[in-house]
Design a protein that fits this description.
Number of strands: 3
Structural class: alpha+beta
Mean pLDDT: 79
Number of helices: 2
Shape: elongated
Order of helices and strands: EHEEH
Strand content: 15-25%
């Protein structure tokens, strides 16, 4: 999956925004910090958002789905 850009007041907020939007957890994501952001002068002027790039590692998600499907089939047979 291609990288997508997400913003927030802090790096943590930007990452959380991205993971929520992509519907994945931190284990399945690759995060690159582009800009840590700044609060600006007295928190009023010149504030810049934190920016991160997030891509989802689909191979981990596919493996997890395959394991769940195999488990469900095994449970139905029992």
């Amino acid at each position: 999956m291609p990288e997508m850009e997400f913003k927030g007041k802090t790096v943590a907020e930007a990452i959380n925004n991205g993971l929520t939007k992509l519907r994945c957890n931190r284990k399945n994501a690759v995060v690159k910090i582009v800009n840590e952001g700044s609060t600006g002068l007295f928190g009023l002027m010149g504030a810049k958002p934190a920016i991160v790039l997030i891509s989802v590692n689909n191979s981990k998600r596919i493996n997890k789905i395959a394991v769940n499907v195999d488990h469900e089939k095994a449970c139905k047979k029992a």
